[in-house]
């Protein structure tokens, strides 16, 4: 005679299945905010890396080619909105006919975009990064043009030096190209700082941290 345990049907009962599904739903609900928060932070980091890479690329190409390379964030030097968040322009040899600090047809450009959910400016920080050499106020950009007006662009000369410049392509003095670009995802801020010599560094300002990372 067979044991009663061997005659029991295999698999889940409806009650057992309902319990399992309920537990899966609870775990998913608890994990969702953590996953969303991680994704938001990652998109902010990726956007900061995109900005830093654009600046480093422009500087490197200026040194390699001997051409002026300009980086524009949001608008060109004339205040016209760009189709992309970031544009890197190969503006040609210094003083050449086409070297006018403007994005002309036929010139080589690289267009980049920020990640979804990342916006220009800050939402947590109340002061600039201590190492930010820009004279502009805390906001999206602390770069200035050659006349000391707010700007969201900078150019790199063939020796790799960043310089401020205005819409008429006049440039500032040595050391005028330092500044920073600030980005936020609503809970955290990042700053991409360019030194007066052209090196780039990223700083973070975490939610509730109260200060910038070094």
How are the SSEs ordered, and which strands pair?
Blueprint: H1 14-65, E1 68-75, E2 81-92, E3 109-112, E4 119-120, E5 153-156, E6 162-163, E7 179-184, E8 189-194, E9 200-205
Antiparallel strand pairs: 1-2, 1-5, 2-3, 4-7, 5-6, 7-8, 8-9
What does this protein look like?
The chain has 214 residues and is of the alpha+beta class. The protein has a single domain (43-205), classed as minor pseudopilin epsh domain (minor pseudopilin epsh fold), CATH 3.55.40.10. Helices cover 24% and strands 23% of the residues. A hairpin with a 5-residue loop joins β1 and β2 (81-92). The longest helix has 52 residues, at 14-65. The model has no long low-confidence stretch (mean pLDDT 89).
Strand order of the largest sheet: 3-2-1-5-6
Class based on secondary structure composition and strand pairing: alpha+beta
Mean of residue pLDDT? 89
Order of helices and strands: HEEEEEEEEE
* Cα-based radius of gyration, to the nearest Å: 25 Å
Helix tally equals 1
Basic shape = elongated
Q: State the end-to-end distance.
A: 77 Å
Which stretches of 5+ consecutive residues score pLDDT under 50?
none
Instruction: Predict the CATH topology.
Output: minor pseudopilin epsh fold
Largest sheet: 5 strands, antiparallel
Supply the CATH class: Alpha Beta
Annotated CATH architecture:
3-Layer(bab) Sandwich
Helical residue percent?
A: 10-25%
Please tally the β strands and state the result.
9
């Amino acid at each position: 005679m067979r044991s009663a345990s061997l005659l029991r049907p295999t698999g889940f009962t409806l009650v057992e299945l309902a319990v399992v599904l309920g537990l899966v739903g609870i775990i998913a609900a608890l994990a969702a905010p953590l996953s969303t928060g991680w994704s938001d932070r990652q998109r902010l980091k990726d956007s900061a890396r995109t900005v830093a890479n654009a600046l480093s690329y422009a500087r490197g190409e200026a040194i390699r080619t001997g051409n002026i390379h300009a980086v524009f964030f949001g608008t060109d030097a004339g205040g016209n909105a760009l189709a992309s968040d970031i544009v890197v322009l190969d503006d040609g040899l210094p003083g050449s006919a086409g070297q006018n600090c403007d994005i002309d047809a036929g010139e080589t450009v690289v267009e980049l975009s920020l990640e979804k959910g990342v916006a220009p400016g800050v939402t947590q920080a109340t002061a600039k990064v201590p190492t930010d050499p820009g004279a502009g106020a805390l906001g999206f950009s602390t770069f200035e043009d050659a006349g000391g007006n707010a700007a969201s662009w900078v150019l790199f000369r063939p020796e790799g030096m960043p310089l401020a410049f205005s819409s008429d392509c006049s440039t500032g003095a040595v050391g005028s190209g330092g500044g920073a670009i600030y980005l936020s995802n609503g809970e955290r801020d990042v700053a991409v700082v360019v030194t007066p010599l052209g090196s780039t560094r990223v700083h973070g300002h975490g939610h509730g941290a109260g200060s910038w990372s070094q």
